[in-house]
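CORE FACILITY INTAKE
Project code: CF-77B
Contact: R.S. (postdoc)
Sample description: multi-component assembly, two entities in total
Requested service: structural model of the whole complex
Turnaround: standard
Below are the sequence entries exactly as provided by the requester. Do not edit them.
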Amino acid sequence: MCADKLEKLTKTQTIDLRAKLIGPSCKIFFSDDPIKIVRARGQYMYDEKGQRYLDCINNVAHVGHCHPDVVSAGALQMETLNTNSRFLHDNLVLYAQRLQATLPAQLSVFYFVNSGSEANDLALRLARQYSGSQDIVTLDNAYHGHVTSLIEISPYKLHHMPHVPLNPFVHVAPSPDVYRGRYRRDHPDPAKAYADEVRDVIKRVQTQGGKIAAFIAESLQSCGGQVIPPAGYFQQVAEHVHKAGGLFIADEVQVGFGRVGTHFWAFQLQGDDFVPDIVTMGKPIGNGHPMSCVVTSKEVAEAFASSGNEYFNTFGGNPVSCAIGLAVLDVIAKEDLQGQALRVGGYLISLLEKQKSKHPLIGDIRGRGLFVGVELVRDRSKLTPATAEAQEVIYWLKEERVLMSADGPHRNVLKFKPPLCFGTDDADFVVDKMDAVLTEIEAAIGLNAANVLNGENDVN
Amino acid sequence: MCADKLEKLTKTQTIDLRAKLIGPSCKIFFSDDPIKIVRARGQYMYDEKGQRYLDCINNVAHVGHCHPDVVSAGALQMETLNTNSRFLHDNLVLYAQRLQATLPAQLSVFYFVNSGSEANDLALRLARQYSGSQDIVTLDNAYHGHVTSLIEISPYKLHHMPHVPLNPFVHVAPSPDVYRGRYRRDHPDPAKAYADEVRDVIKRVQTQGGKIAAFIAESLQSCGGQVIPPAGYFQQVAEHVHKAGGLFIADEVQVGFGRVGTHFWAFQLQGDDFVPDIVTMGKPIGNGHPMSCVVTSKEVAEAFASSGNEYFNTFGGNPVSCAIGLAVLDVIAKEDLQGQALRVGGYLISLLEKQKSKHPLIGDIRGRGLFVGVELVRDRSKLTPATAEAQEVIYWLKEERVLMSADGPHRNVLKFKPPLCFGTDDADFVVDKMDAVLTEIEAAIGLNAANVLNGENDVN
């Protein structure tokens, strides 16, 4: 289809109408000169002029934008039946069965909902009902969703709302960030040290008469700065949380479905001996279709049901969503996208390592599969966040038609989380462009390679 | 497509897998002998044997199950582009513009989300940010969604959770039910009387040091028992709420988009002088596609934005959802479905009135367009809810291949909210069946037409 047919308004008209009609809290990328995308395919997006952008950030388009298998599965089911789960339908149960096959056996009871926010909210409801308690331990810089109950447990958002008092049932433990956090790579046992922090938070809650319902964490923190918790951390946290009567909720909304390469789920990076009590899924699950999922144990599910409460979700688990979910799983397997994430992610990290030895602005490179963070700092000893520079990189890359974003509490972590069809040539292309812009910025601010030797140089 | 191709498992297999894999809180219709639906079209659903059911309840399939215009709009956009609203896209703004044209001019700023629950939760966040207050007034028997913040304001759910303490920020006013409520059709001014109850609740909150953020109500209460508030009630409530610094949220998730026949939005039944501060939309908006919307005034939207908070919803307002939303609006207009709701709804009510004079079990018939409730009572003076009889009707109708449900606090209100393509022949068919089953039940329990004269006989 030719691009001009895909545009019904001029870009200026679109911008004007958006300013008039869309909530001003809904931010756009590159607000001073936003991009109008009219079509996309694989790891590429195309603007109204037909210009191609390399997409390094849309982890929702997990198996590639507009994957034909996913589109046709959705279209076929849409024309056949789309209704709620109060009727029996094969897609619902077959999809649950297929998801179950990717998970530890204990995680066997599914709830299908429409968004990561709905999934995490339901996870909290399950945990609170199961435990009979209210208190939640969350990690600093965490983001778990946009509904009221999740804003409350999202320091990533709360840091920008200093006027809003923290909900008394919410307790924040330090982010297990071994680069910038309280315990770093030079610590003898950061997993234990960070888990002990959670234990201490739980103790404080108990001292004040509270009771823990759950600990919740992304298996790898995304908005929080592409943080990779040290292996063994989750096991020890789970032990503390279980001892306190609470549940461990692993939020896989950003990172699940093979992205980390070695495993299908990011929590599995912690070791085979770790099984969360609840796992939430979202974004990539339907390659852009609004759907998500919560899985838990029979025990937790039965406790929720025993409250006598019915749970009904109008759109959740409808035959179209399940058909799309099944197609996504098929494509991941058929195209070995988990393997591709491992191979291309490894290649990308090796390219970035080389850049690190050349560019003092690169403080840290961390990642698993096609989930990679590049943290920019002005000084490798002090870890001074290079926030403005990260913005400059993003804007420069935009001009080079590469879509990248910066995140983390200091907005200085460049985030790679592309569609999994992202290839080694795409990695070459973007790293080349990064090399050029970093060289330019470093020259402008007078940073030179000598500084590299000042600080910590290890790679995770 | 032949039905047997649509079944991948036997019905028994589907039931067994569902019992094993799907949360036991997710209830199924007719749990002792559930229906397996494999395809649907218009107002008809078909089971695995090819048996046709007349659908009187799926208000989500607003313009008819699997409407080809909606399906093709969705499929075309799915194969072209499906991404988030951080990029400019024409569908987003054109859709907002089209929705705006159906609304009072003040309601001009849109937020697109994925479900009625996400919409109502965002409405609460908007109101709380705008007002700087926390307290919410909700109606008895109301249901506003399944996320934590909405369960809290849903007495329909809370009545089944007596062990859960009411959130101290939530205050319940009586449902403006002129049949069974505190003020009935014989009251000289039920609109004022019920609005005064809200005023009194607000006063109590203020006396206790609280501050009102919002009053929320469905424009017509659905789960609460197909309740039609008396005209003028919303205006007076809005006056009290505004005076207290709060906002009026009209929940149109169940009842919007032309269903009420005379108007596009059910809040408009109250009179042209009434404009809510926030309107939430859902279910019918995408004919089954997971999408929903919040609209408010510039003033409220700006107050929300001024908090510095970004609002991002991964799937909300994506080009596929907006293409589907636009197609739904097109079909409503092209097929004059609002007009059809008015005509067929009027015809249905006239048929039901005749049944009322014949069947003492029918206590009340109330409705607007194709949103109709038939309240069954054992005694027209005492209004004793005929709960078991309503269940019997539902099960009998199922055997006759008519899908109907019973709701309300006593589960004794038969609910009509069919796809708007529901025709007069469909109305004839279902009312005929109802006549037969009511005759049978009344004979069995010894209710006879003489009782009809005992009680109030007026029709709303």
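Facility notes:
- Chain A touches chain B through 102 residues (CB under 8 Å).
- Chain A has 13 helices and 16 strands.
Invoice: internal transfer
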